[in-house]
Amino acid sequence: MYLIPAAAAACVFGGLYLYKMRRYKRSLKRLSREIDRILHGEEVLSLGSCEEGEIAILRDEIYKMTVRLREQSERLAKDKGMLADSLADISHQIRTPLTTLNLMTARMAQEGDNPQQRKKILREMNRMLGRIDWLIKTLLKLSRLDADSVHLEHRKINMAQFLRRALEAFEIQMELRGQSCRIEGAEGLDFYADETWTLEAVQNILKNSLDYTPYEGILRIACCDNPLYTEIAVSDEGPGISPEDLPHLFERFYRGKNASGGSFGIGLSLAQMIMNRQNGIICAENRKEKGSCFRLRFYKGEAEDMDSR
């Protein structure tokens, strides 16, 4: 009497089990085919066919792993391309001063015992070596920033002391050219940044502005602070920036129409990279009166909030 219902129930459950096992095997085969397509270059897994259950969970995990692996692969390819570009840039930029040094060496050999000419050539060679040294150091800094191997430490910095330190490197140059610097708004002002790298960025801006400041000209540095950011504005009395140069001013190795002969076009690019890495921006504009103005803005964030507590 009870055998027929039991047999029927067994058949039903057996049929359901076989049905589920067949679906399970089909899902595994479909997943296997999709994995095979990925291994042969397929971009992503198709999630539209995902079903509920363990297979769907497995598919999701494989999808996540695939996305991460592809992101890492793209990042490695990008880093490899950037490294190749950096090596090409370094080779190109160093070639010119090295060629000049070789020509000077040959010229020195031709001068014989003329002490005045030999002394003049030695001074020029020393200047070229200084340019090569600066170029290599700057390119290495750019490469470190490109590779994201620089750890920036945000600390509280006294603005007046910081600017005095930044100007120390240009004291002799300014004295020889009769240039002066006026600083406004720096006393009693603090800001947060990585001091070493920010010093590098600010000195690159100062160097650029002083190069275009005429003899006996005045360089002006104006500092201001508001709830959003702290700003350093560096203004010169030079010819200003050509309108066609403005959009490309911070591009690596870009040299504008009025660029000096000793310019490599990397100082401003390095300054921008440093500012971008520490929640800041840098922009350039022409002054209404005369010359150009570079504004460095350090936006306020968690470091200031923590210190205020």
Task: Give the strand line-up of the largest sheet.
Answer: 2-4-5-7-6
* Average pLDDT number: 79
User: How many individual domains?
Assistant: 3
First-last Cα distance = 83 Å
Give unreliable regions as ranges.
305-309
Based on helices, strands and strand pairing, what is the structural class? alpha+beta
CATH architectural label of the largest domain: 2-Layer Sandwich
The major pleated sheet works out as: 5 strands, mixed
Enter the CATH topology name of the largest domain: Heat Shock Protein 90
Count of discrete alpha- or pi-helical segments spanning 4 or more residues:
8
Backbone shape:
elongated
Helix content: 55-70%
CATH homolog superfamily of the largest domain: Histidine kinase-like ATPase, C-terminal domain
- What share of the residues does DSSP label as strand, in percent? 5-15%
Order of helices and strands: HHHEHHEEHEEHEEH
Rg (C-alpha, Å):
32 Å
CATH C-level category of the largest domain: Alpha Beta
Number of strands: 7
Please describe the topology of this protein.
Blueprint: H1 3-39, H2 54-111, H3 115-146, E1 155-158, H4 159-168, H5 171-177, E2 180-184, E3 190-193, H6 195-212, E4 218-225, E5 229-235, H7 267-277, E6 280-286, E7 292-299, H8 302-308
Parallel strand pairs: 2-4
Antiparallel strand pairs: 1-3, 4-5, 5-7, 6-7
Helix pairs in contact: 1-2, 2-3, 3-7, 4-6, 6-7
